[in-house]
Write a structure and sequence with these properties.
The chain is mostly helical. The chain has nine helices and no strands. The mean pLDDT is 81.
Length: 197
């Protein structure tokens, strides 16, 4: 077993175990932290596959931005864990079907890679996976990329709309009212006679 194979199996094992802890952890903050561990291990596997751009993008975008947002939202919301767990057994059959389909897809991909036709293709010396990824993403999958961006935008707006609550006791500033302020409204000059000792 070579060093790269050992690292692949090590990172893959940690990735699978941390993914299991994401869905079995009772505390939502712990689940989000295990998801961060999943992202780091997936990034390491990308590095082993010589996809440096995807590895760095995974760490910067998901760990650096999305997971910080997840942790912030989970810690700020008052989540009733008992209500969340009520639907577990009701949704378990659907979850098992979806999980089984995903496992079959992964098995078919790996089987095609191992026993399929052709091995890894030889790459030219000036090959850049970042350039190739951009070319494929913005030419062949351009419409799918735009649709995914619109769906993510709708999801962000929906999440904001669902969690936005008006509170009566909160104070806010009105920038237009502040911009209309005049010196006469803020400062009053008082004329006082001088005093002599």
């Amino acid at each position: 077993m070579t060093a790269s194979q050992f690292l692949f199996y090590f990172f893959g094992t940690v990735l699978v175990l941390s993914a299991l802890r994401v869905i079995t952890a009772r505390n939502p903050v712990h689940a989000a932290l295990f998801l961060v561990l999943c992202f780091f291990n997936a990034s390491a596997i990308w590095l082993l596959a010589y996809a440096e751009f995807l590895a760095i993008a995974l760490v910067v975008v998901y760990v650096g931005a999305v997971m910080v947002l997840f942790l912030f939202v989970v810690m700020m919301l008052d989540i009733n864990l008992e209500r969340v767990r009520e639907g577990f057994w009701r949704n378990l059959p659907v979850a098992l079907v979806v999980g089984g389909v995903m496992v079959l897809e992964m098995i078919s991909v790996l089987a095609n890679r191992i026993w399929g036709a052709g091995g890894p293709r030889a790459l030219p010396a000036d090959y850049s996976n970042t350039k190739e990824l951009g070319r494929v993403l913005y030419t062949q999958y351009g419409y799918a990329f735009e649709i995914a961006a619109v769906i993510l935008l709708v999801a962000i707006i929906s999440a904001i709309a669902l969690t936005l609550r008006r509170r009566k006791d909160s104070r806010s500033q009105d920038p237009s009212e502040q911009a209309r302020a005049k010196r006469a409204d803020r400062v009053r000059l008082v004329s006082m006679p001088a005093e002599k000792d």
